[in-house]
Amino acid sequence: MNLKKRPRRLRAGAEIRRMVRENHVRVDDLIYPMFVMPGKGQKAEVASMPGVCQYSLDEFVRALSEVVELKIPAILLFGIPESKDALASGAYHEHGIVQEAVRLAKAHYPSLYVITDVCLCEYTDHGHCGIVRDGVILNDPTLDYLARTAVSHAAAGADMVAPSDMMDGRVGAIREALDEHGFEQVPIMAYAAKFASGFYGPFREAAGSAPQFGDRRTYQMDPPNGEEAMRETALDVEEGADLIIVKPALAYGDIIYRTKERFGLPVAAYNVSGEYAMVKAAAANGWIEEERVVMEALVGMKRAGADLLITYHALDAARWLNRG
Description:
By secondary structure, this protein is of the alpha/beta class. It has one domain: Aldolase class I (TIM Barrel). The chain contains 12 helices and 12 strands. The strands form 2 sheets. Strands 1, 2, 3, 4, 5, 8, 9, 10, 11 and 12 form a 10-stranded mixed β-sheet that branches. Strands 6-7 form a two-stranded antiparallel ribbon. α4 runs parallel beside α5 and α9 packs parallel to α11. The longest helix has 17 residues.
């Protein structure tokens, strides 16, 4: 028996394991999704996502203090409007809920990096991500509304926009509109590989965005399809995407890996609401060690090739990482 090679030598103690660790999660990798809504003095926990809240604007500013104190560099903003209509007018209104939240965030914490989700589903009375006519979700007419939304976010002070609608051509339309309005410095982080997943259920409660008819399978991708994800991402890159999102994360490590290997752009893994909720539920029942499982999942996303981690675990993860 040849025992000259003993891999266990490099596992013998905590110090050497840290020294040879191949992948790391850092606080700088984290992006924290947040939900803002009208009203005052409102902080409503999402029942299916313990620890995640919908904030009125005043409470949102208070919540940001913890994000900044934990040194989380960026947030991803979602809006819950006061009213909805067929043309998603709240999405691109100058004083829409996201626009006002961006202004407040930049006024109170100028160094916080503010990313805005660009979509229509929270703002339409039918809950779909595009304009609907006679029960059909229309691709091309939707692009103008998405572009107007992105421009309004940039005008409010957003550092980056993230179109999540999955309409064909939306990255190009948004890039063109941003450039025409003098926002050529604002990057686009495209939800390029976004699957029609069963892991999104809790988010629809958090954002109030469940579709009122049908589903989103005509624009979000079918989960078995990897090559389609590569084609979608290639189109978004060609149209001007600066960063790529793969969503969800845990069941799509292969897509994260392939995206990073093929395109070489920064990749964000979106650790989505259902993934978060499952961990929280299991931890609440004492079935798993929450910190250990969360950090294992996040480092798995990094190992797959993700540069950035969009996660509802961001506050907890930052506390654990800052503790050392």
